[in-house]
Design a protein that fits this description.
Its EC number is 2.7.11.24. Its main location: cytoplasm. It is found in: Cytoplasm. The structure is a single chain. α5 runs antiparallel to α10. By secondary structure, the chain is mainly α. It folds into 2 domains: 95 residues, Phosphorylase Kinase, domain 1 (2-Layer Sandwich), CATH 3.30.200; 181 residues, Transferase(Phosphotransferase), domain 1 (Orthogonal Bundle), CATH 1.10.510.
Length: 336
C-alpha cells in the first residue's frame, strides 16, 4: 500500500483492513502473516506492506475457465457463505464482495479478502451508500434506502451467477442503468417494498416489469449438467433455487446466510466444526472513523492500542512478525 497516508479515505481503509485482518480469524478468510514498513521514523512512514497467505487465483480468473462441476460450485458457495457468516457473527459487513476479492486454490479452498470497505453493523444512517462495486451492489444501496448485512447476500448471488454463466449478471453502466438491468431480469418487487420506503408507484407500473423465468437467466447449458448428483442434491434446479432466493430485490424477503447454509444445494458440506469457529472477543470499534479527535486523544488511543496488541501477541511477535503489525497499526491511528 503505497503513499496511503496522502489521502484521508485511503488512510481509514488501510487502518480498517489491518485491524480486521489481525483480529478476524477464519479458515475461509485470508490470513495476515506479517505487516511492516521500511520507515524507521513516523515522519518517514508512507508505505505499508501486508504479507498474506498465497493463493492461486481469484474468482474472476476462475469464472471464465469454462463450465464447472456442480460439486465444485456447491463447495465454493458453501465456503463463501461460511466466511460471511463468521464476519456477520463478528458484527461486520464486508460491503465489497466481488469475484476479484475472493481467492481460491487448485484444491478449491476459498478465502475472502480485501476489507477496506468493511464496517461494523450500525444504524444505516451512519453508513455510506457508496459501497460495493456497482455490478454487485444490492438494490437497497442503489436506491439509498438503508441496508444491513443482507447486502452481502445479494453480492454473493451475483458472484455465484457469474461463476455459472461466465459473465456479469447485471452489467449496469451507472446506478440508473444498474436498476434497469435488475428490473429487466427480476421484474418489479411487490408494492409493499415501495410502500415501506415511501415510494409512490402505481399498480400499472409494477405490471410493466415482469420477471424472466430463472431457467432462462441461468440455463441448464451453463452447467456441466453431466456432473449432477441428485442423490446429494447437486442439481442445476437446486443451484437456481438458491440463487433465486439470494437475488430478491426486497431485502426483507431475501434469504439469510444461515438459511442459505441450510439449503440443500450446499448443506451436504455443513459440519459442526465449520459452524462453530471461535469468534475473537475483540470487537472492531469504528468510532475512530466517525469522530474528529485531538492530538492528545490520538496519543491516548495509540498508547492503549500498543498495550493491547503487545499483550495479545506476546511470544508470537518475533515468529510472525507481529511487531510490524503493531507498529504499523500505531502509526495508522496517528494518521487516520
Amino acid at each position: 500500500m503505497e503513499e496511503f497516508l496522502n489521502d484521508c479515505m485511503n488512510s481509514k481503509r488501510t487502518y480498517r483492513e489491518l485491524v480486521l485482518l489481525i483480529n478476524v480469524k477464519h479458515p475461509n478468510i485470508i490470513g495476515l502473516l506479517n505487516a511492516f514498513t521500511t520507515a524507521s521514523q513516523l515522519e518517514q512512514f508512507e508505505d505499508l506492506y501486508l504479507v498474506t497467505e498465497l493463493m492461486d487465483m481469484n474468482l474472476t480468473n476462475f469464472s471464465i475457465k469454462g463450465k464447472k462441476e456442480l460439486r465444485t460450485i456447491s463447495f465454493l458457495v458453501y465456503q463463501l457463505l461460511c466466511a460471511i457468516r463468521h464476519l456477520h457473527n463478528c458484527g461486520i459487513i464486508h460491503r465489497d464482495l466481488k469475484p476479484s476479492n475472493i481467492a481460491i486454490n487448485a484444491d478449491c479452498t476459498l478465502k475472502v479478502l480485501d476489507f477496506g470497505l468493511a464496517r461494523r453493523m450500525v444504524h444505516d444512517s451512519q453508513m455510506t451508500s457508496y459501497v460495493v462495486t456497482r455490478n454487485y451492489r444490492a438494490p437497497e444501496i442503489i436506491g439509498e434506502l438503508g441496508y444491513d448485512n443482507k447486502m452481502d447476500v445479494w453480492s454473493i448471488g451475483c458472484i455465484v451467477a457469474e461463476m455459472i454463466i461466465r459473465r456479469v449478471l447485471f452489467p449496469g453502466e451507472n446506478s440508473l442503468d444498474q436498476w434497469r438491468q435488475i428490473l429487466s431480469i427480476l421484474g418489479a418487487p411487490k408494492k409493499e417494498f415501495f410502500d415501506r420506503y415511501g415510494i409512490q408507484i402505481s399498480e400499472n407500473q409494477l405490471e410493466m416489469r415482469t420477471a424472466v423465468p430463472f431457467e432462462e437467466v441461468i440455463p441448464d447449458r451453463a452447467f456441466a449438467i453431466e456432473t449432477q448428483m441428485p442423490q446429494h442434491h447437486l442439481t442445476a434446479d437446486l443451484a437456481r433455487d438458491l440463487l433465486k432466493k439470494m437475488l430478491v430485490i426486497d431485502p426483507e424477503h431475501r434469504i439469510t446466510v444461515d438459511n442459505a447454509l441450510n439449503h440443500p444445494f450446499v448443506s451436504m458440506w455443513k459440519t459442526e466444526k465449520d459452524m462453530n469457529v471461535p469468534i475473537n472477543n475483540y470487537q472492531y470499534d469504528d468510532a475512530i472513523e466517525l469522530e474528529d479527535r485531538t492530538t492528545a486523544e490520538w496519543k491516548d488511543i495509540d498508547t492503549a492500542q500498543r498495550k493491547r496488541k503487545a499483550d495479545r501477541f506476546g511470544s508470537e511477535t518475533s515468529r510472525l512478525g507481529c511487531r510490524g503489525c503493531r507498529d504499523a497499526g500505531d502509526a495508522l491511528r496517528e494518521c487516520v
